[in-house]
Amino acid sequence: MSGAEKFGATATWPDGVSLSVSAPKPFKPSESAAGVESAKKFVVVEVTLKNGSKAPVESSMASLRATSGDQEAESVFDSAKGIEMSSSRVLPGKSLKWRQVFGQPGSDIAVTADWNWQGPVTFQ
Question: The whole model's pTM is what?
Answer without folding.
Answer: 0.92
